[in-house]
Write a structure and sequence with these properties.
It is built from twelve helices and seven strands. By secondary structure, it is α/β, with parallel strands linked by helices. A five-stranded mixed β-sheet has the order 4-3-6-5-7. A two-stranded parallel ribbon has the order 1-2. The protein is globular, with a radius of gyration of 18 Å. It starts with 26 loop residues before the first helix and ends in a 13-residue tail after the last strand. It binds 7,8-dihydrobiopterin (HBI) and fe (iii) ion. Fe (iii) ion binds next to α5 and α8. The site of fe (iii) ion (FE) has 6 residues, from α5 and α8.
Length: 287
Protein backbone atom coordinates (compact mmCIF):
# COMPACT_ATOMS: atom_id res chain seq x y z
CA UNK A 1 0.00 0.00 0.00
CA UNK A 2 1.21 3.54 -0.69
CA UNK A 3 2.01 5.66 2.38
CA UNK A 4 -0.78 7.95 3.47
CA UNK A 5 -0.08 11.69 3.06
CA UNK A 6 -0.39 13.78 6.24
CA UNK A 7 -2.26 16.67 4.65
CA UNK A 8 -5.21 16.62 2.26
CA UNK A 9 -4.16 16.65 -1.43
CA UNK A 10 -4.73 19.77 -3.58
CA UNK A 11 -8.42 20.30 -4.27
CA UNK A 12 -9.54 18.62 -1.02
CA UNK A 13 -11.00 20.53 1.93
CA UNK A 14 -9.22 20.55 5.33
CA UNK A 15 -11.50 17.63 6.36
CA UNK A 16 -10.27 15.75 3.24
CA UNK A 17 -13.64 15.87 1.43
CA UNK A 18 -13.88 16.61 -2.29
CA UNK A 19 -16.88 17.37 -4.51
CA UNK A 20 -18.29 14.13 -5.93
CA UNK A 21 -18.61 15.68 -9.42
CA UNK A 22 -21.21 13.10 -10.35
CA UNK A 23 -21.42 14.42 -13.94
CA UNK A 24 -17.86 13.25 -14.64
CA UNK A 25 -18.72 9.52 -14.46
CA UNK A 26 -18.71 8.00 -17.93
CA UNK A 27 -21.34 5.77 -19.49
CA UNK A 28 -18.93 2.89 -19.14
CA UNK A 29 -18.57 3.57 -15.40
CA UNK A 30 -22.34 3.74 -14.88
CA UNK A 31 -22.66 0.48 -16.81
CA UNK A 32 -19.98 -1.14 -14.63
CA UNK A 33 -21.84 -0.07 -11.47
CA UNK A 34 -25.04 -1.59 -12.93
CA UNK A 35 -23.22 -4.83 -13.69
CA UNK A 36 -21.76 -5.07 -10.18
CA UNK A 37 -25.14 -4.16 -8.66
CA UNK A 38 -27.04 -6.80 -10.65
CA UNK A 39 -24.49 -9.48 -9.78
CA UNK A 40 -24.72 -8.80 -6.05
CA UNK A 41 -28.50 -8.46 -6.09
CA UNK A 42 -28.79 -11.94 -7.59
CA UNK A 43 -26.65 -13.33 -4.74
CA UNK A 44 -27.73 -11.48 -1.63
CA UNK A 45 -31.37 -12.40 -0.92
CA UNK A 46 -31.07 -15.29 1.54
CA UNK A 47 -27.44 -14.39 2.28
CA UNK A 48 -27.53 -10.75 3.47
CA UNK A 49 -29.32 -9.54 6.61
CA UNK A 50 -32.82 -8.20 5.77
CA UNK A 51 -31.81 -4.74 7.04
CA UNK A 52 -29.29 -4.51 4.18
CA UNK A 53 -31.83 -5.45 1.49
CA UNK A 54 -34.32 -2.98 3.01
CA UNK A 55 -31.66 -0.25 2.91
CA UNK A 56 -30.92 -0.85 -0.78
CA UNK A 57 -34.60 -0.29 -1.53
CA UNK A 58 -35.10 2.66 0.83
CA UNK A 59 -32.12 4.45 -0.72
CA UNK A 60 -32.99 3.43 -4.30
CA UNK A 61 -29.40 2.38 -4.96
CA UNK A 62 -30.42 0.29 -7.96
CA UNK A 63 -31.95 3.25 -9.78
CA UNK A 64 -29.25 2.97 -12.46
CA UNK A 65 -25.60 3.95 -12.52
CA UNK A 66 -23.26 5.38 -9.90
CA UNK A 67 -25.43 7.07 -7.25
CA UNK A 68 -25.50 10.87 -7.13
CA UNK A 69 -24.75 11.73 -3.48
CA UNK A 70 -27.04 14.78 -3.55
CA UNK A 71 -30.02 12.51 -4.20
CA UNK A 72 -28.77 9.73 -1.95
CA UNK A 73 -28.12 12.13 0.93
CA UNK A 74 -31.63 13.57 0.81
CA UNK A 75 -33.01 10.11 1.52
CA UNK A 76 -30.34 9.09 4.01
CA UNK A 77 -30.61 12.33 5.98
CA UNK A 78 -34.36 11.87 6.28
CA UNK A 79 -34.01 8.25 7.44
CA UNK A 80 -31.15 8.40 9.98
CA UNK A 81 -29.38 11.77 9.73
CA UNK A 82 -26.32 10.27 7.98
CA UNK A 83 -24.52 11.76 4.96
CA UNK A 84 -22.11 10.29 2.41
CA UNK A 85 -19.13 12.50 1.56
CA UNK A 86 -16.53 11.93 -1.17
CA UNK A 87 -12.81 11.66 -0.36
CA UNK A 88 -9.87 11.05 -2.73
CA UNK A 89 -9.00 7.65 -1.19
CA UNK A 90 -7.85 6.40 2.20
CA UNK A 91 -7.83 9.17 4.81
CA UNK A 92 -5.91 9.28 8.13
CA UNK A 93 -7.54 7.43 11.03
CA UNK A 94 -8.40 10.54 13.06
CA UNK A 95 -10.07 12.11 10.01
CA UNK A 96 -12.03 8.89 9.34
CA UNK A 97 -13.24 8.62 12.95
CA UNK A 98 -14.04 12.34 13.10
CA UNK A 99 -16.40 11.97 10.13
CA UNK A 100 -18.09 8.85 11.57
CA UNK A 101 -18.60 10.55 14.94
CA UNK A 102 -20.46 13.31 13.05
CA UNK A 103 -22.58 10.81 11.09
CA UNK A 104 -20.68 11.30 7.84
CA UNK A 105 -19.48 8.25 5.91
CA UNK A 106 -16.46 8.85 3.67
CA UNK A 107 -16.55 7.17 0.26
CA UNK A 108 -13.72 6.83 -2.25
CA UNK A 109 -14.37 8.94 -5.33
CA UNK A 110 -13.34 6.44 -8.00
CA UNK A 111 -14.79 3.25 -9.48
CA UNK A 112 -12.70 0.13 -10.06
CA UNK A 113 -11.59 -0.66 -13.62
CA UNK A 114 -13.36 -3.48 -15.52
CA UNK A 115 -10.30 -5.74 -15.03
CA UNK A 116 -10.63 -5.23 -11.23
CA UNK A 117 -14.26 -6.34 -11.13
CA UNK A 118 -13.50 -9.15 -8.68
CA UNK A 119 -10.78 -7.72 -6.50
CA UNK A 120 -9.00 -4.50 -5.63
CA UNK A 121 -7.19 -3.46 -2.47
CA UNK A 122 -8.36 0.15 -1.99
CA UNK A 123 -12.04 0.81 -1.24
CA UNK A 124 -13.80 2.19 -4.35
CA UNK A 125 -17.32 3.62 -4.73
CA UNK A 126 -18.88 0.22 -5.18
CA UNK A 127 -17.42 -1.13 -1.94
CA UNK A 128 -18.06 2.07 0.01
CA UNK A 129 -21.54 2.90 -1.28
CA UNK A 130 -23.06 -0.48 -2.14
CA UNK A 131 -21.32 -2.29 0.73
CA UNK A 132 -21.56 0.23 3.56
CA UNK A 133 -24.31 2.75 2.91
CA UNK A 134 -27.50 0.60 2.88
CA UNK A 135 -27.05 -0.30 6.55
CA UNK A 136 -26.70 3.38 7.45
CA UNK A 137 -30.44 3.54 6.69
CA UNK A 138 -30.99 1.20 9.66
CA UNK A 139 -31.36 3.30 12.84
CA UNK A 140 -29.56 0.85 15.14
CA UNK A 141 -26.64 0.17 12.83
CA UNK A 142 -26.43 3.92 12.13
CA UNK A 143 -25.93 4.56 15.86
CA UNK A 144 -23.32 1.79 16.06
CA UNK A 145 -21.24 3.46 13.32
CA UNK A 146 -21.33 6.79 15.13
CA UNK A 147 -20.38 5.10 18.44
CA UNK A 148 -17.52 3.38 16.62
CA UNK A 149 -16.21 6.75 15.39
CA UNK A 150 -16.30 8.17 18.90
CA UNK A 151 -14.60 5.04 20.27
CA UNK A 152 -11.99 5.25 17.51
CA UNK A 153 -10.94 8.73 18.59
CA UNK A 154 -10.68 7.53 22.22
CA UNK A 155 -8.70 4.41 21.24
CA UNK A 156 -6.06 6.61 19.60
CA UNK A 157 -5.51 8.40 22.92
CA UNK A 158 -4.88 4.97 24.52
CA UNK A 159 -2.56 3.84 21.72
CA UNK A 160 -5.00 0.99 21.08
CA UNK A 161 -6.29 1.78 17.61
CA UNK A 162 -4.94 -1.49 16.16
CA UNK A 163 -7.08 -3.43 18.70
CA UNK A 164 -10.25 -1.43 18.02
CA UNK A 165 -9.61 -1.64 14.26
CA UNK A 166 -10.15 -5.42 14.62
CA UNK A 167 -13.65 -4.74 15.94
CA UNK A 168 -14.38 -2.70 12.80
CA UNK A 169 -12.88 -5.41 10.61
CA UNK A 170 -14.83 -8.30 12.15
CA UNK A 171 -18.14 -6.40 12.32
CA UNK A 172 -18.53 -3.52 9.83
CA UNK A 173 -16.35 -5.17 7.15
CA UNK A 174 -16.72 -8.94 7.65
CA UNK A 175 -19.51 -9.46 10.19
CA UNK A 176 -22.16 -12.20 10.15
CA UNK A 177 -25.42 -12.27 12.14
CA UNK A 178 -27.49 -15.14 13.49
CA UNK A 179 -31.12 -14.70 12.41
CA UNK A 180 -34.24 -16.88 12.71
CA UNK A 181 -33.63 -17.94 9.08
CA UNK A 182 -29.94 -18.80 9.54
CA UNK A 183 -26.60 -17.00 9.40
CA UNK A 184 -26.64 -13.85 7.29
CA UNK A 185 -24.00 -11.32 6.12
CA UNK A 186 -23.82 -7.71 7.27
CA UNK A 187 -20.12 -6.90 6.64
CA UNK A 188 -19.50 -4.55 3.70
CA UNK A 189 -16.32 -6.33 2.61
CA UNK A 190 -18.37 -9.46 2.01
CA UNK A 191 -21.50 -7.76 0.62
CA UNK A 192 -19.48 -5.99 -2.09
CA UNK A 193 -17.72 -9.22 -3.19
CA UNK A 194 -19.47 -11.90 -5.26
CA UNK A 195 -16.96 -14.59 -4.35
CA UNK A 196 -16.89 -13.88 -0.63
CA UNK A 197 -20.70 -13.55 -0.41
CA UNK A 198 -20.90 -17.24 -1.32
CA UNK A 199 -17.78 -18.26 0.60
CA UNK A 200 -18.77 -16.60 3.88
CA UNK A 201 -22.14 -18.39 4.01
CA UNK A 202 -21.65 -21.73 2.23
CA UNK A 203 -17.99 -22.70 2.12
CA UNK A 204 -16.85 -25.35 4.64
CA UNK A 205 -13.38 -23.77 4.88
CA UNK A 206 -13.76 -20.83 7.30
CA UNK A 207 -14.59 -20.95 11.00
CA UNK A 208 -17.80 -19.21 12.07
CA UNK A 209 -17.64 -18.33 15.76
CA UNK A 210 -19.86 -16.48 18.21
CA UNK A 211 -18.94 -12.80 18.58
CA UNK A 212 -17.07 -11.90 21.76
CA UNK A 213 -15.66 -8.38 22.12
CA UNK A 214 -12.34 -9.25 23.80
CA UNK A 215 -11.86 -12.32 21.59
CA UNK A 216 -12.32 -10.22 18.45
CA UNK A 217 -9.94 -7.47 19.59
CA UNK A 218 -7.24 -10.14 20.09
CA UNK A 219 -7.67 -11.67 16.63
CA UNK A 220 -5.40 -10.69 13.72
CA UNK A 221 -6.96 -10.43 10.29
CA UNK A 222 -6.07 -11.00 6.65
CA UNK A 223 -6.32 -8.23 4.08
CA UNK A 224 -5.20 -10.27 1.07
CA UNK A 225 -7.74 -13.11 0.84
CA UNK A 226 -11.14 -14.29 2.07
CA UNK A 227 -11.26 -14.50 5.87
CA UNK A 228 -10.30 -17.73 7.64
CA UNK A 229 -12.72 -16.95 10.44
CA UNK A 230 -15.92 -14.92 10.75
CA UNK A 231 -17.69 -13.79 13.93
CA UNK A 232 -21.46 -14.05 14.32
CA UNK A 233 -23.38 -11.37 16.28
CA UNK A 234 -26.85 -11.98 17.73
CA UNK A 235 -28.28 -8.60 16.59
CA UNK A 236 -27.39 -4.98 15.87
CA UNK A 237 -29.11 -4.05 19.15
CA UNK A 238 -26.75 -6.29 21.14
CA UNK A 239 -23.70 -4.96 19.29
CA UNK A 240 -24.70 -1.33 19.84
CA UNK A 241 -25.60 -1.88 23.48
CA UNK A 242 -22.28 -3.54 24.25
CA UNK A 243 -20.33 -0.82 22.45
CA UNK A 244 -22.13 1.95 24.33
CA UNK A 245 -22.06 0.28 27.75
CA UNK A 246 -18.45 -0.92 27.75
CA UNK A 247 -15.61 1.17 29.11
CA UNK A 248 -12.86 0.15 26.67
CA UNK A 249 -9.96 1.69 28.66
CA UNK A 250 -9.55 -1.24 31.11
CA UNK A 251 -10.00 -3.68 28.20
CA UNK A 252 -7.11 -2.05 26.33
CA UNK A 253 -4.94 -2.46 29.44
CA UNK A 254 -5.91 -6.13 29.67
CA UNK A 255 -5.35 -6.68 25.93
CA UNK A 256 -1.80 -5.33 26.13
CA UNK A 257 -0.91 -8.34 28.32
CA UNK A 258 -2.72 -10.97 26.22
CA UNK A 259 -1.20 -12.64 23.16
CA UNK A 260 -2.81 -12.02 19.77
CA UNK A 261 -4.74 -14.89 18.21
CA UNK A 262 -4.30 -16.17 14.68
CA UNK A 263 -7.25 -15.68 12.28
CA UNK A 264 -7.99 -19.42 12.15
CA UNK A 265 -7.79 -20.13 15.90
CA UNK A 266 -10.62 -21.82 17.81
CA UNK A 267 -10.48 -21.45 21.61
CA UNK A 268 -12.09 -23.74 24.20
CA UNK A 269 -14.56 -20.97 25.19
CA UNK A 270 -15.67 -20.16 21.61
CA UNK A 271 -19.24 -20.75 20.53
CA UNK A 272 -18.66 -22.70 17.32
CA UNK A 273 -21.24 -22.32 14.54
CA UNK A 274 -18.86 -23.93 12.02
CA UNK A 275 -15.51 -25.60 12.66
CA UNK A 276 -13.88 -24.77 9.31
CA UNK A 277 -11.86 -27.27 7.33
CA UNK A 278 -9.40 -24.45 6.45
CA UNK A 279 -9.12 -26.15 3.06
CA UNK A 280 -8.69 -22.81 1.27
CA UNK A 281 -4.92 -22.35 1.16
CA UNK A 282 -3.47 -19.11 2.50
CA UNK A 283 -0.19 -17.49 1.62
CA UNK A 284 0.81 -14.29 3.40
CA UNK A 285 0.83 -13.91 7.22
CA UNK A 286 -2.04 -12.09 8.92
CA UNK A 287 -1.64 -8.68 10.54
N1 LIG B 1 -10.25 5.91 4.84
N2 LIG B 1 -11.41 6.33 2.89
C1 LIG B 1 -11.22 5.56 3.99
N3 LIG B 1 -11.99 4.47 4.20
C2 LIG B 1 -11.81 3.68 5.30
O1 LIG B 1 -12.54 2.69 5.47
C3 LIG B 1 -10.80 4.01 6.22
C4 LIG B 1 -10.04 5.15 5.96
N4 LIG B 1 -9.06 5.50 6.81
C5 LIG B 1 -8.81 4.78 8.02
C6 LIG B 1 -9.66 3.59 8.22
N5 LIG B 1 -10.57 3.26 7.37
C7 LIG B 1 -9.41 2.74 9.45
O2 LIG B 1 -9.12 3.58 10.52
C8 LIG B 1 -10.57 1.80 9.81
O3 LIG B 1 -10.47 0.69 8.98
C9 LIG B 1 -10.54 1.36 11.24
FE1 LIG C 1 -15.05 -0.76 3.94
Amino acid sequence: MSPMPEAPPPGAAPDWTVPQQWARFTRAEHALWDRLYARQLALLPGRAVPQFLDGLKALDLGAGGVPDYRRLNERLMRLTGWQVVAVPGLVPDDVFFGHLSNRRFVAGNFLRRPDQIDYLQEPDIFHDVFGHVPLLADPVFADYMQAYGEGGLRSMRHGALHKLARLYWYTVEFGLMETADGIRIFGAGILSSAGESRFAIEDPSPNRLGFDLMRVMRTRYRIDDYQQGYFVIPSFEALLRQTLETDFAPLYKELAALPDLSPDAILPGDRVFTRGTQARPVSAPAQ
